[in-house]
Amino acid sequence: MYQPLVSSEMEAEESEEPRPARQGRVSAWGRVVAYRTMARKTFESKPISHWILLSLSSAAMLVAFPASSLLSRVYYSNGGTSKWIISWVAVAGWPIPLLVLIPMYFVAGNYPTPLSAKLVVSYVGLGFLSAADNLLYAYGYAYLPASTASLLGSTSLIFSALFGYLIVKNKINSCTVNSIFVITAAMAIIALDSDSDRYGSVTDGQYAMGFVWNILASFLHGLIFALSELVFVELLGRRSFHVVLEQQVMVSFFAFVFTTIGVVINDDFSGMVSESNSFAGGRSSYLSVIIWGVISFQLGILGATAVLFLASTVLAGVLNSIRVPLTAVAAVILLNDPMSGFKILSLVITLWGFACYIYGHYPTS
User: pLDDT tens digits for 262-281?
Assistant: First the structure.
């Protein structure tokens, strides 16, 4: 009698043990179905033109921004020295979105947005911040490898999240806080491993200043993202895609004006002739770097502004961060950037920080 009793209890336990696993599988599958349903509803809530524009804008960020970063490093590694010239290159393409905007007024029947005092002040302010941001990034790329500068640029995600919360009232949660700490730790690893990726011609002081300027540039980058979204929300509205082009034209124009003043005062335009003559590869290579830099910078900024309009600061921050590993890998392959074990560790930790951020902002209902 005892053995069957034990056997029946064991059978009962064995029959009960798989239930939580089965429930777990059902729960996991239910979550997959819920996400799939949510994705379908989200897709159906917008016209197909919205998703096409968002895809093109995202692609512009992920291709043009890394390209502009690599071109900046090529400029300095091949003999360029001016910080103002690279800053000027970043905004000299301001007429590019204008060439797209003007036909929209005639073909799509859109009308120019009236320029109120608040809107003009916003354009001027964003233009000045953009000019300062470009100059700080130029100093960073002058003294740091492109892979290191791009990793430091990932801190813009931190500032995008903080300013998005303070200015635009975007959500911030425990995952965001965790990603902030993780990315900060990754930047600390790079700082401690500075000897492994510093160019021989760069002094300790220059490397340190490049590090600081890059972080400050990321600070301004995050602030510009949030303020740009605020302009859309409070002043422009999300009426039509032409307001994206309008803002980009005006902000880039004022940034171009501020930067051009700096170039003239520093007398760097006259120095472009001597730079092109001594540039590795000759004048044609110099002009190629400058021209493609103008195009890639403007396309990247236009893509970022469009993502802000079509989605939010959150998505713009995520895409801006995804470009970090793309730039780092491309710099190692194309520019032979040094990639130490510590830098690889920093990259992995940074990716983990991005994953935390994306997970925390992924809609659950």
Answer: 999 998 988 898 899 889 98
